[in-house]
Design a protein that fits this description.
147 residues; mainly alpha; Arc Repressor Mutant, subunit A; 2 domains; three-stranded antiparallel beta sheet; 5 helices; 65% helix; rod-shaped
Length: 147
């Protein structure tokens, strides 16, 4: 029987135990027609079965929640990578520079930079040569101009 580290049974083990108790005491009741077999069935078998079902459902809900949080965590890490590169380059970056200095693809870097620009964290400037440069004022050498 595989138990978790905290000594409690898993949801599946609780269900198996509950089904076993319900089956045994149910068969005893049906074969003997003595009513006292219903008490262990109701007070031992059914609670174990219900606890197991509740644990399985709560474990599934927790798993769904973790799966939903995973993309947000990945995007937050990608944003941190962009900010690190921006800090290293005195606040001025391009999608290509981000791609070279992080694990992000060019498309991811461009999408995140545009998102950060639309939220006001960065500004997008086009140089005379037509190159798009994103600027993060927090990391600029000219921080005193902002204040």
């Amino acid at each position: 029987m595989s138990r978790r580290g905290d000594g409690r049974k898993s949801g599946g083990e609780e269900i198996i135990g509950g089904v076993t108790l319900v089956t045994v005491f149910g068969l005893l009741f049906l074969s003997t027609h003595q009513w006292f077999w219903l008490f262990p069935l109701c007070f031992a078998g059914l609670p174990a079965l219900l606890r197991g079902v509740q644990r399985v459902y709560s474990q599934r809900a927790l798993l769904r929640q973790r799966r939903a949080e995973a993309p947000r965590d990945a995007e937050a890490e990608s944003t941190r990578q962009i900010l690190r590169v921006a800090k290293e380059n005195h606040g001025k970056v391009t999608p290509a520079l981000i791609t070279l200095n992080s694990a992000l693809s060019l498309e991811e870097a461009e999408r995140l930079l545009q998102s950060m620009t639309s939220k006001g964290y960065a500004s997008m400037n086009v140089t005379d040569s037509g190159r798009i440069v994103y600027e993060f004022p927090e990391f600029s050498d000219r921080l005193d101009e902002i204040e």
